[in-house]
Design a protein that fits this description.
The structure holds two protein chains of two kinds. Chain A is an all-alpha fold. Chain A has helices at 2-29, 33-37, 44-53, 60-72, 86-121, 126-140, 143-157, 182-214, 218-225, 230-259, 262-267, 273-283, 286-314; strands spanning 170-172, 175-177. In chain A, helix 5 packs antiparallel against helix 6 (126-140) and helix 5 packs antiparallel against helix 10 (230-259). The longest helix of chain A is centred in the first third of the chain and has 36 residues, at 86-121. Chain A is globular. Chain B is of the alpha+beta class. Chain B has helices at residues 9-12, 36-42, 48-51, 56-61, 111-119, 131-138, 183-192, 195-202, 232-241, 262-274, 287-296, 320-327, 347-357, 362-379; strands spanning 15-21, 24-29, 71-77, 81-86, 102-105, 125-126, 143-158, 168-169, 207-209, 248-255, 278-285, 307-313, 383-396, 399-401, 414-416. In chain B, the strands form five sheets. In chain B, strands 6, 7, 9, 12 and 13 form a five-stranded antiparallel β-sheet that branches. In chain B, strands 3-4-5 form a three-stranded antiparallel β-sheet, with no helix packed on it. Chain B has a three-stranded mixed β-sheet with strand order 8-10-11. In chain B, helix 7 (183-192) packs antiparallel against helix 9 (232-241), helix 12 (320-327) runs antiparallel to helix 13 and helix 13 runs antiparallel to helix 14. Chain B is globular. Classes of the chains: A mainly alpha, B alpha+beta. At the A-B interface, helix 2, helix 3, helix 5, helix 7 and helix 12 of A face helix 4, helix 5 and helix 11 of B.
Chain lengths: 324, 417
């Protein structure tokens, strides 16, 4: 296991390096941040002063070298706009995004797995067909549009939930999150549901497919034949076996929930990393874009590793190579 | 302030500050400089105790953001909120206490989400109401809408410095001499623009037709200039007189996320130009890509496009701002014409602009600025103005906002009805 983790880490470092090269050169090819940020009234001399102060007058190879050297020291650059370390800005925003992703993952799982199992056990029933049709809607409607609809319906028309922003932040066992206050929960519900919709649909379909396959396996038949209660058949024999593909998907999807919550965060003005990256892209805040992408890469690498390890726990037949 | 991309250097340049006593500062300039009051209005005064050596992050955290206004800084969570509270010691308090105890600014970027937040009662006031929604919101009795002209003119820059312009071809694709060099063609283009339709259809009525660089009421605006009429017949005749009776092909460029309805404006322009025989292609792009190419995308960092849509907000509140930046000859050594992306150049105009910039007498300066505008825009068609944006705010009915031309939303402008 240790050898496996070590080997994975080495690979990750190579991935990170290649990624940094791609991102850095890509970001630096597009646009001119000074043109975006400078006071329009400024004259040419002022423009040149700013270009020089931000180090943009140097050749790109030299800029990349500085970036790498600083990155080794844990400094991913300073935001052009906020004048603060890019890493700090991202870390500040991380809790908001993570709580949004966790909550929406929670929503999608508690609904999707029971619904998916039901649809798998009784594929011909009307309810199952409705569930499956609904799941198609779930992943074919654009997040942006659904978000606006949610706001119009729940916030404007019914007036039940707030339309925008993050709620009050509470503290529980030293962890600060808006999930711990009622106001926070009411704020997070709509964006989380919006973000969950797509996952909800894919997990329903995955669960159903898994159920359909496993329900005909010999060990299920045997369990039933020896008189095991149906609830135990489903909750233990079936559930444990359909979880393997679901864990893979959830692991990767959790990463993508965090990385791509940008649309939802923009619609709901949720102050997370996704909104930060979108704002930074609009304003060409290069250091923040680069730092964000690097962090997301690390995230994915880490999640993949975690998923591989979880496999072995769920299914003892899966052995990680090199663990002997 | 080190490493600030948007510092106040522009406003402080060429000035030396001498302290006379604790309430008086003497500011000296190298030569007569009439824009001193305008420049100073942009600079906030901070006590030396807090301001000395402060960095951007000190202002972000509020450590150094200590001024003398009616509201005090409480907290800024980037991308989430800015919190202010009333300043009980405000020096203007004789006229009454600050109107609100606590003020919360929330950035909501998406137009529909902003409106939804207002309708849902989550916020009390929003800015930048999208034109499409203005008519509908006006009918809503529980809201107050206020709007006024902005100091931002939406205009066209035309390539006037290349014999062969990269995005202009003869009909059929052959090389031709840049027709935009000819003032008759530039005038024809202005006559081909149906500004009434632009305002009514593209801008949903939320804009004003433009014939110069700033709407009436600003300093240095010419009383003699009107927006050009829509006259395709005269435009076609001018095209024929200039030797382009058969027209030409042109790709026109514009941003798609910078000005209100910018991409739609460019599309409408293309249709209008095709009516006088200019076959147009439209290319719009995000501002992050657009501005670099518009300013320095060509060889030797020259402007890349032949015909481009832009906007200019006159920060100083008078016509000298667009004149010096957009229409004065591009000249790095004296800091003029920085945003002159068409590189229009007329020594007569330059002379008047420079004269105006050192004329302290406001009336005399206003006349000079108006004269420069009349020549540069009215006669030379150095740029072609289309319309002035309007700024609209919407608030719940118990509040209203006094519209500002500079697009700022200041708490001091909000009043209880």
């Amino acid at each position: 296991m240790t050898a496996f983790i070590l080997r994975r880490s080495t690979q990750s470092i190579i991935v990170l390096f290649i990624m940094s090269l791609l991102v850095f050169s890509g970001v630096n090819l597009v646009g001119d941040p000074v043109e975006m940020l400078i006071n329009p009234e400024a004259d040419q001399a002022e423009v040149e002063r700013v270009i020089k102060e931000l180090g943009l007058d140097k050749p790109i190879t030299e800029q990349y070298w500085y970036f790498l050297m600083n990155a080794f020291k844990g400094d991913l650059g300073t935001s052009f706009i906020f004048g603060e370390p890019a890493l700090k800005l991202i870390v500040q925003r991380m809790p908001a995004t993570i709580e949004l992703a966790l909550f929406s993952l929670f929503i999608s799982l508690i609904f999707a797995i029971p619904l998916g199992i039901y649809a798998g056990l009784k594929p011909e029933s009307k309810i199952s067909k409705t569930i499956m049709a609904g799941s198609i809607l779930g992943f074919s409607m654009p997040t942006f549009w659904v978000g606006i609809l949610f706001i119009m319906f729940f916030a404007v028309y019914l007036g039940w939930l707030p339309s925008t922003g993050r709620g009050e932040i509470g503290s529980f066992l030293g962890v600060k999150s808006s999930l711990f206050t009622l106001d926070g929960l009411s704020h997070i519900f709509l964006p989380a549901l919006n973000l969950a919709l797509f996952k909800l649909s894919s997990v329903i379909r995955l669960t159903r497919a898994g159920t359909r396959e496993i329900i005909h396996q010999d060990y299920i038949k045997f369990a039933r034949a020896k008189g095991v209660a149906e609830s135990r058949v489903i909750n233990v024999h079936l559930l444990k076996n359909i979880l393997i593909p679901i864990v893979t998907i959830i692991g990767l999807e959790f990463g993508s929930l965090i990385a791509f919550s940008t649309v939802t965060e923009t619609v709901f003005a949720w102050p997370g990393m996704g909104k930060l990256i979108i704002d930074s892209i609009y304003n060409l805040d290069r250091p923040v874009i680069v730092a964000y992408l690097m962090i997301i890469v690390i995230f994915f690498v880490f999640l993949n590793l975690l998923v591989d390890i979880l496999y072995t726990l769920l299914d003892p037949r899966v052995r990680i190579q090199g663990s002997n | 302030m080190p490493k600030s991309p948007s510092g106040f250097g522009t406003y402080l340049k060429g000035k030396t500050f001498v302290k006379i006593d604790s309430h008086t500062i003497h500011i000296k300039t190298e030569k007569p400089y009439p824009l001193m009051p305008n420049d100073l209005s942009t600079v906030k005064i901070i006590s030396k105790k807090y301001g000395e050596g402060a960095s951007t992050s000190d202002y972000n955290s509020g450590k150094a953001a200590i001024g003398t206004g009616p509201y005090k800084f409480v907290e800024w969570v980037p991308g989430d909120k800015i919190v202010l509270k009333a300043n009980p010691n405000y020096h203007g308090a004789l006229k009454g206490k600050p109107a609100f105890n606590k003020v919360l600014f929330k950035p909501i970027k998406t137009g529909p989400a902003r409106i939804a937040a207002l309708l849902a009662g989550d916020v009390d006031l929003i800015d930048s109401v999208p034109p499409l929604d203005v008519a509908r919101l006006k009918k809503n009795a529980s809201l107050t809408l206020t709007s006024g002209p902005s100091n931002r003119v939406i205009y066209i820059h035309l390539d006037q410095f290349r014999e062969n312009s990269p995005y202009i071809k003869a009909i059929g694709g052959g090389e031709i001499k840049n027709p935009l060099m000819d003032v008759r063609i530039r005038k024809a283009i202005s006559l081909a623009i149906n500004r009434d339709a632009m305002v009514a259809k593209v801008m949903e009525g939320i804009a004003l037709k433009a014939g110069q660089l700033l709407p009436a009421g600003f300093h240095g605006v010419s009383p003699n200039m009107k927006p050009d009429p829509y006259d395709t017949k005269a435009a076609k005749k001018l095209m024929a007189d200039a030797g382009y009776g058969n027209g030409f092909e042109m790709t026109i460029h514009g941003p798609n996320d910078r000005y209100i309805n910018d991409a739609k404006i460019v599309e409408a322009l293309a249709q209008m130009l095709s009516r006088i025989g200019i076959k147009t292609k439209v290319e719009t792009m995000p501002k992050s890509v657009y501005f670099k190419r518009a300013s320095a995308g060509g060889p030797n960092k020259s402007p890349e496009f032949s015909f481009m849509l832009l906007g200019w907000g006159a920060g100083s509140g008078e016509a000298s701002s667009p004149l010096r930046a957009l229409l004065h000859t591009y000249d790095k050594s004296i800091g003029m014409g920085r945003a002159n992306r068409g590189r229009h150049s007329d020594p007569a105009v330059d002379k008047i602009i420079q004269q105006a910039l050192s004329t302290v007498n406001a009336d005399a300066r206003g006349k000079l600025l108006a004269e420069a505008t009349e020549i540069a825009v009215g006669k030379n068609y150095g740029v072609i103005p289309i319309h002035y944006q309007m700024n609209t705010w919407a608030a719940k009915s118990s509040l209203s906002y006094q519209p500002r031309t500079d697009e700022y939303t200041l708490v001091m402008g909000i009043s209880n009805n």
